[in-house]
Amino acid sequence: xxxxxxxxxxxxxxFGPDGRWEHTDGVLTGRAGARQDRFVPPGGDSLESVSDAPxxxxxxxxxxxxxxxxxxxxxxxxxxxxxxxxxxxDQEWAKLCMELSPELPTICSVITRGHSDDANxxxxxxxxxWLRLSRTGDAYAFHASxxxxxWTFVRTFALGAPERKADVRIGFLVQSPTGEGCRAAFDHxxxxxxGLADLRDGS
Length: 203
Description:
DUF1349; Jelly Rolls; globular; mainly beta; ConA-like_dom_sf; eight-stranded antiparallel β-sheet
């Protein structure tokens, strides 16, 4: 894999509102402003009126891959989150979140296909957890971990047309849908080749 600027494992570009992204001593930090989110309510407004949130994204590698990071969030309001983000198109994206949902730190996932779904996975003890986004063939998967070694399955899904894999972007997002702003930090960032043989064996 190529190395991006500042020692990150791949080149990244900012999208959306200013996230004041910084990368120092192996830690990437970003900040969402008040009421910033990227979510289209299932029964609500159309995509054109969706709110936005700071994103730092790079081109996904060809073939199978695993993107992982430890995510630490300075929670202040409901649904503040640090996120691993997958962008497959203007109306198709996915989020794996370390989120205050709404009172307890929780692993949450969102898949958007024109409108968003929303699913809680497990409660986290503290404000830090490891998250992983992977691709195996045409399928994506989300996992979470307490230590970055043994992984717990969150969900698997397909997103975007297989022939448009070259357009997929992956990276990081910070959100604060109900609050006045949120800071999240990402460290131990790794982008590795290869997918997963078994989604549920902890590897």
